[in-house]
Write a structure and sequence with these properties.
Elements lengths: L5 E5 L5 E2 L15 E5 H8 L17 E2 L4 H7 L3 E2 L3 E6 L5 H11 L6 E5 L4 H10 L7 E5 L3 H11 L3 E5 L16 H18 L2 E7 L18 E7 L4 E9 L7 E7 L2 E4 L4 H4 L11 E8 L2 E13 L7 E2 L5 H14 L7 E7 L11 H13 L7 E3 L2 E2 L5 E2 L4 H10 L4 E4 L16 E2 L3 H9 L8
Parallel strand pairs: 6-10, 6-11, 7-8, 7-9, 9-10, 15-19, 17-18, 19-22, 22-23
Antiparallel strand pairs: 1-2, 1-3, 4-5, 11-12, 12-13, 13-14, 15-16, 16-18, 20-21
Helix pairs in contact: 8-9, 9-11
The structure holds thymidine-5'-diphosphate and magnesium ion (MG).
Length: about 450
């Protein structure tokens, strides 16, 4: 007979150790390791013992649509059965609305349970009516008490459960004071465990504090499969991003706007990120074709260059990394003969999109040059490409998609890098006009190069 083995399991995060330790090496909590029987721990975590691969049911991994194409993309192709998802965001951003919509529209045949410790059932009903949600089989339970929630889970066996919010969860088993980090972690972990064991998908809502930390639930991030954050920039758009995803990439961004009828998907992002003008665009603006997740978005990059007020010049840019902007300014200074070192630089992206993609470089360079020289770019021009320190325009991924997306929005002059070495030229005409380096870009777009480099 197999000898019973003892392990020490952290009551905060579920981590196990063969020996007792004063501090959990996984989550850093003190005095949380408890003696447990290894088999019981395994069963509790449903990791069980090893299985023959052939005995694993492939249908276990199936996904269902959340009813929102944007959320599906961010989740990695829909809601994964048995997965746990943490959804963080500031109060008022629309988490409850998003998850109520998801609960009502998810394409599951099973039951869906929406647990709220924040609002009463009539309040939720009113909101659902107002945004036109109806679902047979959507059930509400208003409580934050772990034992009561588990009892309802055991009787309803929902295939999707939403917990709104983690901060309202409490259990006598995790100490007397509700709302503490330990309470939130313990309850969240217990519910995520329940969901995993029963093949249910669970969404845990978490309020984040102003400094962006998911207080308490931050500690829960490692125990869930996916962490989503719901945020808003200065514009109207709300961004749903994933910062962790066991079942998909973390590059995707889902876009929504809040209307009187709830959250509405932005399926044509360029309509929001492009500034449409009657006449020509002013100097200091350039349109970039950037690749976000799995689609091309056209955004307007705006630059302002003014004499420095201090001895050191500053770069103000919160949508594009300021060090990237400073590097591009330096490249222009060296290779296109314009001086930025006695100037303050401001860079913005219309619509408030944050861009970390290297393909935005060329448009940033064009916007900076345009701002500095006060010469506007030609109409209906878009750009993409990464800039090297030597001023070369480097190839970036998906160049043809960028050209096509630009043309479909009326930008007929698309400037970009030459194809990567070895790539076949395009036969359906979706090639960019090649600009080999930043000096050439300035010649082509602005008709001249300023003072030759020193
Ligand atoms: P809410 O989902 O309650 O945010 P959170 O759960 O993240 O705190 O909703 C946020 C705001 O959205 C709220 O102030 C009211 C507004 N709202 C609308 O404008 N239209 C709607 O249809 C709904 C449901 C809410
Ligand atoms: Mg809420």
């Amino acid at each position: 007979m197999k000898k019973k083995t003892t392990v020490y399991r952290c009551s905060a995060c579920g981590h196990t150790e063969p020996k007792w330790l004063g501090r959990c090496p996984s989550c850093g909590e003190w005095n949380t390791l408890r003696e447990s029987e290894a088999a019981a721990v395994d069963a509790a975590r449903d990791s069980g013992f090893s299985l023959p691969l052939s005995s694993v049911d492939p249908a276990e991994g199936v996904r269902v649509s959340s009813g929102s194409a944007e959320a599906d993309r961010v989740l990695g192709g829909g809601i994964m059965k048995g997965s746990s998802v943490l959804v963080g965001g500031e109060p008022g951003i629309g988490k409850s609305t998003l998850l109520l919509q998801l609960a009502a529209r998810a394409e599951t045949k099973g039951r869906v349970l929406y647990v709220s410790g924040e609002e009463s059932a009539p309040q939720i009903r009113l909101r659902a009516d107002r945004i036109g949600l109806a679902r047979e089989g959507l059930e509400l339970f208003c409580s934050g008490e772990l034992g009561a929630i588990l009892a309802v889970l055991d009787t309803t066996r929902p295939s999707i459960v939403v917990i709104d919010s983690m901060q309202t969860l409490h259990s006598d088993e995790a100490g007397i004071v509700p709302g503490t980090v330990n309470q939130v972690k313990y309850c969240g972990m217990t519910l995520a465990d329940w969901a995993k064991r029963h093949g249910s998908s669970i969404f845990l809502v978490a309020h984040v504090t102003k400094d962006g930390q998911i207080a308490g639930p931050k500690a829960a991030e490692h125990m869930v499969d996916t962490v989503l954050s719901f945020e808003q920039s200065d514009g109207d758009v709300r961004f749903l991003r994933s910062t962790k995803n066991r079942f998909g990439s973390t590059d995707e961004v889902g876009l929504y706007t809040m209307t009187a009828a709830g959250l509405v998907e932005v399926s044509d992002p360029s309509s929001i990120f492009l500034v449409r003008r009657e006449g020509a665009a002013p100097s200091g603006t350039a349109v970039a074709a950037v690749w976000e997740g799995s689609r091309c978005i056209l955004v307007e990059v705006q630059a302002l260059v003014v004499p420095s007020k201090a001895a050191v010049s500053r770069v103000n840019s919160d949508r594009i990394d300021p060090s990237r902007v400073a590097r591009i300014a330096a490249v222009l200074e060296r290779h296109a003969g314009v001086v930025f070192s006695d100037r303050d630089i401001y860079v913005n992206v219309s619509g408030g999109m944050r861009i970390a993609e290297p393909g935005v470089d060329l448009a940033v360079a064009a916007a900076l040059y345009s701002a500095r020289s006060d010469l506007a770019l030609p109409d209906r021009t878009s750009l993409f490409g990464e800039l090297s320190l030597a001023g070369e325009v480097r190839p970036v991924k998906r160049s043809r998609s960028r050209v096509k997306a630009s043309r479909s929005l009326g930008f007929d002059s698309v400037y970009g890098p030459a194809h990567a070495a070895g790539a076949e030229p395009d036969d359906d005409g979706a090639d960019a006009k090649v600009v080999a380096d930043v000096r050439r870009m300035v010649q082509v777009l602005f008709g001249a190069v300023g003072r030759p480099p020193r």
